Amino acid sequence: xxxxxxxxxxxxxxxxxxxxAQIVVxxxxxxxxxxxxxxxxxxxxxxxxxxxxxxxxxxDFSTIQSDGTETEYYAPSSEGxxxxxxxxxxxxxxxxxxxxxxxxxxxxxxxxxxxxxxxNGFDIPVSLDLDQPFIIKRAPIGYEDSYGTSTxxxxxxxxxxxxxxxxxxxxxxxxxxxxxxxxxxxxWDLNRTEEADSWGTVNVRNQEMDVLRIIQEDETTIGIxxxxxxxxxxxxxxxxxxxxxxxVPGGTTETTTYKFLSMDSKESIVEIISTSDMDGNExxxxxxxxxxxxxxxxxxxxxxxxxxxxxxxESFRIEMNSEIENATISIYNMNGxxxxxxxxxxxxxxxLVGHLASGQYSLKVTSxxxxxxxxxxxxx
Length: 380
Known about the structure:
By secondary structure, this protein is mostly beta strands. It has helices at about 1-20, 165-170; strands at about 35-45, 55-60, 65-75, 90-95, 100-105, 110-115, 125-140, 145-155, 180-205, 205-230, 235-240, 250-260, 270-275, 280-290, 300, 305-310, 315-320, 325-330, 340-345, 350, 360-365, 370-380.
């Protein structure tokens, strides 16, 4: 009976920690028709930060810089120029540089059609339904959830719609003798996977928020085919490989987006986007929630205290420039994982770290509305 008496409280503590650790992105994060999401465009940040993964991670974007803004407008579908073509749509939003018509339900927003006066830089009017709805936002999302969505659409047009294309094809020798080109088509095959692989705390311009980190993988394949006709019939022939580079968009592009989502914000707190082209060249871009500024009361200062001694062998104490009481100390390793937390710390408190491995760590001291950080070195 005694063993049962002590097992139950331990089980309850483990269960309580597991529940509290979960950060669930709420249904309220889905934008309503007529709402705008505002972002700052990223110019620089600590480029290793967004790749840290696991549970209870600390992502430090405190020095993130921006130049310019971006607005993501979820307009009522009635504001679209082609709204009559999509009577069931609720929202119209930019999609591939055109108007993407979307449905919104209680758990997601999905693109159902695309329309515009031009496409991919060509004067090609288009208004078509997607093969199947393509989900661009969903909720709720919890830790370790994963999802997938895909769609396909194509545009058929006359070869003269793309200036110079006929001449290039004639000179390439790809068209068999005795055949003629009847028409061409461009196709877009979109595939997306999403995984909530990490949770923790993000620091953006000295403001800290609990977040769920989503890895979104996008693969877009653009195909270009010609319908070749002979006396024996016709067939579609893929000509993407025979066109000069950049003449018409083609091939496969892979994009990985690291999204840091809070429980109740409609904007992502941070998004870092890694794009790889057909040659494997990577480009990093990003954006973060525009309302995050550096004038928050939760001020983070560097070296507002001393660690005595530092480097550390077994233990240390904190010497602050100002009096602290009931502070919380957190230690993070170089992967952003929190390895120690101690509450109700004062300037006389001894912090034991003998169980931690040798190496460099980040030390955070939270006292009231002030957060201070410094580097900590542990030696064995």
